Amino acid sequence: MATKEQLMxxxxxxxxxxxxxxxxxxxxxxxxxxxxxxxxxxxxxxxVRFLPDKDPNNTFFWVKREVIRLPFDGVEGGDYPTSKQVxxxxxxxxxxxxxxxxxAATRPWWxxxxxxxxxxxxxxxxxxxxxxxxxxxxxSEDNQPENPIRRFVINPSIFEIIEKSLMxxxxxxxxxxxxxxxxxxxxxxxxxxxSNYSTSDWSRKTRSLSETELLSxxxxxxxxxxxxxxxxxxxxxxxxxxxMFEDSVAGRPFDMESYGKYYRPYGNNxxxxxxxxxxxxxxxxxxxxxxxxxxxxxxxESYEEKPHATERTAPAAEPATxxxxxxxxxxxxxxxxxxxxxxxxxx
Length: 347
Known about the structure:
Low-confidence stretches: 16-29, 268-283, 289-330
Largest sheet: 7 strands, antiparallel
Number of helices: 9
Shape: elongated
CATH topology: Replication Fork Single-Stranded DNA Binding Protein
CATH class: Alpha Beta
CATH superfamily: Replication Fork Single-Stranded Dna Binding Protein
Distance between the termini: 11 Å
């Protein structure tokens, strides 16, 4: 686990490497592990506790996920041809340090007032994948998973709050520390017609993980967060993404024969990242943009974590190294914590 100083240094280095992007302003692998915090009612909050990444080489306790939504004028070929507007979600290879052909093509558009709206339409959408416990949920879940270690697909507005607080020298310990960490409260309010999470914040008090939580870490193990970024496209697949982008911009239908082996539009095996309403919204924005060079109407992004045609299968939960202690047994939180620390050091 990285120290607070190492994490701050890595965040600062990321800031330096980032470049201005012009005028810019996600069911999980079938295991139901993603906690849908966006379902909480306006004016309520859920409390979560973040945990480290399983990957010891990840300085952060999250991974960034970047995707691009490509709208198409229908589907051509395959078993489900249609003239209805559809959308396909592809990974932006920027997140692996590769050169994204879509970002390369759209960056110059920001300098052209007639193409700026189109650039915004095809700009990458970011989210951040965390894991941890749901300490207190503002709503009841119908299919709560057996493994209490959940994944959280955090939107940029919440991530900004987390990032800024980590750079604050007054936060002495990492919030993921098992003993001196703090919980995070996700507050949902309204800003205009859209949900707003800007009042989310950390708890003012430190809290050690409970014995039950420590036993869960020991029994189930942590998620390897990079498994949920999606599969990294190879050179051939990156060329395919570029070709799909060019077809989308040209207003062509999605070519199922050419691309269907790797990517499927929503409504064809449901391998997409968005709901029907979002698909229609994207298509409407594209039509308006091409017709009148107008900026697309903003819609609230869904951060529900859904499987992609390119996404890895969810890893199976790690087998228990020991059975949970029964109530009143000799196992205590400190012993559990020591076992977890020892196992981490041996990796």
